[in-house]
Design brief:
With 165 residues, the protein is mainly α. The protein has five helices and no strands. Helix 1 runs antiparallel to helix 2, helix 2 crosses helix 5 and helix 3 packs antiparallel against helix 4. It starts with 9 loop residues before the first helix and ends with a helix. The N terminus is likely disordered.
């Protein structure tokens, strides 16, 4: 019996992750609704209540926007990861030396980054290059540039899908 058929494979892991995400989304929505209701109550309590109520009404709005943006980015990144995996282009780090924590050693991550950056510079209009570069930034520990590069990869992939290539 294979690991996947026994219920311990990647499909089961995906279901667990989705269940946690769904629970957190429902909990946040519940929180936003409760906070919004409390804010409306404060609006009828004089000047200080109105100021506090308006501030409290802004929190669920901003929170909902952040939740939406985060989920949109996560789904887009997952779509790219799935396509990269199907095409066999995921960055292979299996042979790189690792620290006891499991992270790739800094020198190896920097060398991998330099190699992938060169590949990306050779094919700058390909979302796959930017996806791989984002992963290399992440392995090198530069999360900010990894996120920005992944956003660029998502935008390029969307252009490719929209143009029907």
């Amino acid at each position: 019996m294979s690991a996947e058929s026994a219920g311990t494979g990647p499909d089961r892991q995906v279901v667990k992750i989705l269940a946690v995400v769904a629970f957190l989304v429902v909990a946040l929505i519940f929180y936003f609704v409760r906070l919004g209701g409390l804010a409306i109550t404060y609006l009828g309590e004089g000047f200080a209540g109105i100021v506090l109520g308006i501030g409290m009404l802004l929190l669920p709005v901003v929170g909902a926007w952040i939740l939406w943006a985060t989920l949109q980015a996560a789904f887009a990144h997952q779509r790219l990861a799935r396509r990269i995996d199907e095409e066999g282009l995921e960055v292979d780090t299996s042979q790189l030396p690792r620290r006891p924590s499991g992270r790739i050693e800094r020198d190896a991550a920097d060398a991998l980054f330099a190699q992938i950056k060169t590949e990306c510079e050779a094919d700058p209009d390909n979302w796959r290059s930017y996806y791989r570069l984002a992963r290399a930034y992440d392995y090198a520990g530069d999360r900010g540039r990894a996120r920005a590069t992944m956003r660029h990869a998502v935008a390029l992939e969307k252009l490719e899908r929209d143009s029907g290539e």
